[in-house]
Design a protein that fits this description.
Layout lengths: L2 E3 L3 H11 L18 H76 L3 H73 L4 E3 H12 L3
Antiparallel strand pairs: 1-2
Length: 211
């Protein structure tokens, strides 16, 4: 019969990646206690497998979170640029609106002052040009309103994504401490304990079979 030791580094190497090197404890020295029973070995092996699986899942979730977070940050930059464009367009449209208002207000006085046919024709030409300019202004205003609404919708959607990202971050963080506790439990109960290798082989087959 051959016996061997569980080594604490089996699980701690994954823990180091998951929660940072500062949380990794030194492996405990070999203990002079008796050889583990098969039931004890089974419990320790299943705990080790579960800890490794949890660590891998946490790493995957962290990687996915970082990718999605980067995408959201990139969208935030684009939304900020679009907001700046909206503000600039709003200023341009406001300037045009005020200019048109002043010109339209002055048309009555110009019409009243026109005496000759030449003066009247000039006023009429200005009036028609003003009508066309106002038509273009209204088209631009319609486009601006549509763009502004689309930007509001975009901001609302982005804020929703930010909320989801923040929740996911909390969810991932909430998994780390319980994982650390399970690793500490394995280290306390299983690390550097002696066991029979033939029993380990049997238990590995059980675990592979889903037992």
């Amino acid at each position: 019969m051959k016996t061997t030791f569980f080594r604490a580094s089996h699980v701690l190497s994954m823990l180091a990646i998951t929660v940072g090197m500062n949380n990794v404890h030194a492996a405990t020295p070999a203990r002079p206690d008796k050889i583990m029973t098969m039931a004890e070995l089974r419990t320790c092996m299943k705990l080790e497998y579960a800890n490794k699986k949890a660590a891998e899942e946490i790493l995957q979730e962290q990687d996915a979170f970082k990718r999605d977070q980067a995408a959201v940050k990139a969208d935030q930059v684009e939304v900020t640029k679009a907001n700046d464009e909206i503000r600039a367009n709003a200023a341009t449209i406001t300037t045009e609106r005020d200019a048109l208002s002043g010109l339209i207000s002055g048309m009555s006085a110009k019409s009243a002052a026109a005496k000759t046919d030449e003066e009247k024709a000039a006023v009429e030409a200005e009036r028609l040009a003003l009508i066309e300019r106002n038509r273009v202004y209204e088209q631009n205003m319609d486009r601006f309103n549509a763009a502004q609404q689309a930007q509001r919708d975009r901001v609302t959607a982005l804020n929703g994504r930010i909320g989801v990202i923040n929740q996911r971050n909390q969810t991932v963080n909430d998994r780390v401490e319980p994982h650390q506790e399970q690793v500490a439990l394995w280290r306390d109960q299983c690390s550097n304990r002696r066991f029979r290798e033939e029993e380990e082989v049997v238990i590995k087959k059980e675990i592979a079979a889903g037992k």
